[in-house]
Specification:
The chain has helices at 52-61, 80-87, 105-114, 133-144, 159-168, 190-201, 212-215, 226-236, 259-263, 266-269, 273-288, 290-294, and strands at 24-28, 66-70, 93-97, 116-122, 149-153, 173-175, 205-208, 241-242. The protein is an alpha/beta fold. The chain has a single domain, classed as TIM Barrel (Alpha-Beta Barrel), CATH 3.20.20. It is globular. The chain binds (1E,3Z)-4-hydroxybuta-1,3-diene-1,2,4-tricarboxylic acid.
Amino acid sequence: MDKDWIPFHPNPSQPTFIPPAGAVDAHCHVFGPAAQFPYAPERKYTPCDASKDQLWALRDHLKFSRNVIVQATCHGADNSALVDALAHANDLARGIATVRGDVTDEELFRLHEAGVRGVRFNFVKRLVDALPFDELTAIAQRIAKLNWHIVIYFEASDLAEYFDFFSSLPTTVVVDHMGRPDLNKDINGAEFDLFLKLLDYNPNYWSKVTCPERISISGPDGYDDFVPFGRKVVETFPDRVLWGTDWPHPNMKSHMPDDGKLVNMIPRIAVTPALQHKLLVDNPMRLYWPEQVNAGVK
Ligand SMILES: O=C(O)/C=C(\C=C(/O)C(=O)O)C(=O)O
């Protein structure tokens, strides 16, 4: 792993917040293990290994029930580690893959059968060289036929440039980490307002209210500055929000969060049991296990 890499917290605290039954960690990753699933040559970082079994152990420790595993950029478009985790999840995990424009229909079908339900378009320059819009549009049109959705990751400062392209995407679109707002800026300022407009103008847009540890300037004593931004998104779009740990927390430089304390953030941004149930159960189940929702599975 990179010499400045901070591994995930070895002993996360037991959260005081108990999630509702069936809660979903809707944003997490698996890394390797590298001996079995080598990291991509084009990667921009080399992480510690972080296995599916360690992810399941965290899920159980935090009293969650399900995971949505997002392909990490260190694996590029080789989704093997993701597919392996899904194959060993007993249907308690779904996946978001990374694909290129030359992905075959057979590969998309194989990924769907494994439990993948979407692709990630990453625009964070320190992580990837983003694909050209026309290639992304072609991928979007193909995955729309699978009823998959798109997860997008971008910096708030880039949203104005991407707004029209984002608004053209034909599927449900889930924004990672609220589009990484700059918490030095006013919650009522133009930058966060543009993010809120993205969801307001586009009813197919959802947002994860995640990653206080990445976004907060006030820091890990409580990530207090994150709370009003998270609350605003949850209360404005209660049926279109998701939550996740972001374990194993790639590329953290200032500190490594205690996952138990991240869970304790939930009642501060979703302040009623009804909002917590939408955030942690209703919304992710509707998006990732619709067949079970329709069958009345609890
Ligand atoms: O885990 C996150 O969502 C955030 C980061 C990394 C990735 O998403 C990734 O490498 O796939 C980041 O900000 O470095």
